[in-house]
Design brief:
Length: about 325
């Protein structure tokens, strides 16, 4: 991959909806409490989309900021990838809706479904297209409105999720910088551990699917937790190995923000000190595909990376899937 033109991040933007749902708000909705949520997950609050906001609206706000920071407009884009599991509708894709709103006439646009790993899958896809010479400037967005598929009577899941969007512009960068390696993978056999069954071609929407709550996220928390801890470790070591780097070379670790205990287990395995790890799960909870870009963009806005720093992103999610990347900022 490294003998082709260097490709990296040339613009960043993020957006979270205004409304905040705190743990104490949730205490009034289900049998839970702040102490349980904070000690088991690290989450204190999450942002929730307004009734008139869909995933493309969150993605649009993040995209505008990313374009601005790259000094571009929509017409400079030739590829748009939206990683999401909560598209505005089955089709047209959320990426096509965005292409129109951004005035990115003629740009290729598609959605990518890899749940919480989707953003890293999107980065790998865009990087490959650009390195091949097919495209030059790609908008890659992770955006999700998990509140729309969360059952707010189920305490096992409703405390865990939030809404948001993070966007980057991917394009050519100076020699020595950019993406150094990717490690993407899946374990389809574990798909039923984390899923939304209803509304597809297997179980089309019906009065029965609604009654049986098939349009909400189902999760086997304990099994997903074990999978997450395992692949966060293995994918991180693998992606470093592919880049010819060592744990000690990592300047900033940007993990998927699902649960502070999963992040801490990865920190221990990699022997990473707190100051090298981005954590914002307390403010946003798990925003699925938006989680890694929200963390990456927030770290950039806070000046936590300087040119030449080695940034390691890693995520896991439904599928089951995982994705990791080494990026020289
Ligand atoms: C969901 C998760 C936080 C639960 O934490 P845990 O320590 O494993 O908790 P357990 O599953 O052992 O449940 C312990 C008890 O707490 C209860 N509980 C679950 N949610 C609760 C809540 N919000 N408030 C209070 N109690 C709750 C359970 O009902 C269970 O009670 P029981 O033992 O009487 O059945 C944890 O499993 C997890 O984070 N899993 C991974 C989730 C994830 O990352 N998903 C997204 C992947 S992209």
């Amino acid at each position: 991959m490294n003998n082709l033109r260097p490709v990296g991040v040339i613009g960043t933007g993020k957006y979270v909806p205004e409304k905040i749902l705190t743990n104490s708000d949730l205490e009034k909705m289900v049998d839970t409490n702040d102490e349980w949520i904070v000690s088991r997950t690290g989450i204190k609050e999450r942002h929730i989309a307004a009734p008139d906001q869909a995933t493309s609206d969150l993605a649009y706000e993040a995209a505008i900021k990313a374009l601005e920071s790259a000094g571009m407009t929509g017409s400079d884009l030739d590829l748009i990838i939206v990683a999401t599991i909560t598209p505005d509708s089955a089709f047209p894709s959320t990426a096509c809706i965005l292409q129109d709103k951004l005035g990115a006439k003629g740009a290729a646009a598609f959605d990518l479904s890899a749940a919480c790993s989707g953003f890293v899958y999107g980065l790998a896809t865009a990087t490959s297209f650009i390195k091949s010479g097919l495209y030059n400037n790609a908008l890659v967005i992770g955006a999700d409105c998990l509140s729309r598929i969360t059952d707010y009577t189920d305490r096992n899941t409703c405390v865990l999720f939030g809404d948001g969007a993070g966007a980057v512009i991917v394009g050519e960068v100076p020699e020595g910088r950019g993406f150094k390696s990717f490690d993407l993978g899946a374990e389809g056999a574990g798909g039923s551990l984390l899923q939304l069954e209803g509304g597809g071609s297997r179980l089309p929407a019906s009065a029965e699917t609604i009654e049986n709550k098939k349009h909400y996220i189902y999760m086997n928390g304990r099994e997903v937790f074990k999978f997450a801890v395992r692949v966060m470790g293995t994918a991180t070591l693998e992606v470093l190995n592919k880049a010819g780097l060592d744990r000690s070379d990592v300047d900033l670790f940007v993990p998927h923000q699902a649960n502070i205990r999963i992040i801490q287990s990865a920190m221990q395995r990699l022997d990473l000190p707190e100051e090298k790890v981005v954590v914002n799960v307390d403010k946003y909870a798990n925003t699925s595909a938006a989680s890694i870009p929200l963390a990456l963009v927030e770290a950039a806005e806070e000046g936590r990376m300087k040119a030449g720093d080695t940034v390691l992103m890693v995520g896991f999610g439904g599928g089951l899937t995982w994705g990791a990347s080494v990026l020289v900022w």
